[in-house]
Amino acid sequence: MIAECLVVEFAVSGDDCPLADASRAVGVTVDAQPPQLRADGNALLQFGAPDDDRLAQVLDADPRIRYLHRARKDGRANFRCLSKHPCVVHELVSAGFVAESLSYRDGNARFTGAVVGYDVLEGVMNRAGETVGVRLERVHPLGADEDRSVAQRWNVTPRQEAAIRTALAMGYYAVPREVDAAGVAAELGISKSAFLERLRRGERALFAQLFG
Fold first, then answer.
1. What are 56-72's pLDDT values in tens digits?
2. Which of 24, 89, 92, 111 could be 107's S-S partner, Cβ–Cβ 3.0 to 4.6 Å?
């Protein structure tokens, strides 16, 4: 039995997969589930983004994408499609990386997941060294409570979690601030007031649990 499972996070630059290219072309954040490889060589891609017709147009025009479907709800768009284009994440997965979430912005990506032990991590890192621009950002032992999502673990809603994550990624919490509330709201596809309400409710829930 493996004694330790590790949470790992990779930053990726130079990935030429369809989602990376689309995020670069449109300037939105694309949050994806791990691709599901099929026996026919296609990968099933499932991902979401702020509802932006430009993103749908870029993806629909990409010859690597087939059978693109978009479902729209509350200012968000959820997509499904097939792709035969090999991506960096496929290389890491084949070496033992268990991908859990993928995020693309401005052509760059961040992959979060797990590996079962340091020997497997070494193999994943060796494979990463053979691909473009893959950097290990974070690694730590998997705790028992990390089998749950962030929203479940900290008692915030998924929308509050998305607001906090997006604000952090875009530099809303940086000093000096790199983006204002209106900019983050536009990225999420919601109004500024809705973003601020979700952010404050989420922060209050987090702070209440951290400080009692």
1. 999 999 999 999 999 99
2. 24
